[in-house]
Amino acid sequence: MSIFDLPLAVTARAGTNIALVKYWGKRDPNLNLPATGSLSLTLANFGSETTVRFAPDAEAPEGGDRISFDDAPAPPRFAERVRRFLNLVRQETRVGLPAEVATRNSVPTAAGLASSASGFAALALAASRAAGMKLAPRELSALARQGSGSAARSIFGGFVEMAAGERSDGSDACAQALLPAGAWDVRLVVAITAEGPKAIGSSQAMELTAKTSPYYAGWLQAVPQDLAAARAAVLTQDLVGLGRVAERSAMRMHACAMAADPPILYWNGATLAAMETVRRLRAAGTGAFFTVDAGPHVKVLCTARDAELVEPALAATPGVLRTLVLVPGPGAEVLREERR
Ligand code: PMV
Predict the structure, then answer these.
(1) Which residues line ligand 1 (CB under 6 A)?
(2) Are residues 22 and 165 in the same domain?
(3) Which residue range(s) make up the domain with 139?
(4) I want to staple 295 with a disulfide (CB 3.0 to 4.6 A). Which of 112, 211, 263, 335 is the partner?
């Protein structure tokens, strides 16, 4: 393929997602292969928009990739992850050209919503198209996974299931759509309980958990049943069934991480207070169920109507700084292809 066959610039967007059956642990850290499957909900409005253009060497600064984030040069660690990801696309396509990458995030910083999920999903779509590849959604998902495990799920909209896969090359470690965004009008109400970055990144924490937590084997054993129960609940739109699995999956993931050495504790006082609010709402008859990711924020699954009760109750919980109400959204999509 010659550079003249390539689109000039491809812009793609993807929404972030929240796991209801958590991914925690890798079967192969190099290929970023998950040890278990997971199940999530992709969200509207909170996501990433990324433009990729493979530029002829002559136009590239010092022959390298030029990577920006929210209109400023990307922080070095983020730029390095993007560069490594672009190398995968370059290897696959033999497009040996440096790239210009511009990412904008609509995931509020420090909101505790995984921006790496939407970021690598948008990057996988934009970079593969800009390099002349037309991947099927499952192939795109397997590519996005190599940037971030949760990104594999953001390729699809609505409720999504990620398979751990069995192959050593990771080609079957990809996600698939379970139920489209418009089919079930649920909400995730987020209680933000702290500012600033998380204590320990998810990859490092997963590795420490797998190496040192005596509960890791139990965690791995429990996930397939949780996945089957969550899948059945999604397909029958059973909020109570799904909510129960989501809570127990989150508690098991955190229990497993807390038992690592040194222990990994993502929660703060307001995390526990928000969980208590959810239990109180439930005791009063509201169908609300929490999940917590690798951070202190609490995300509560409920119906669209109940979100009107859940949001003020969380906002009034001591230590909760802000709330957000999130709605299901579509999968990754190409917004623009500007050809030479
Ligand atoms: O995709 P990563 O490497 O950021 O890991 C995601 C880990 C959790 O958010 C805690 C769970 C999940 O399944 O998204």
Answers:
(1) 19, 22-23, 38, 114, 116, 148-150, 202-203, 293-294
(2) yes
(3) 3-181
(4) 112
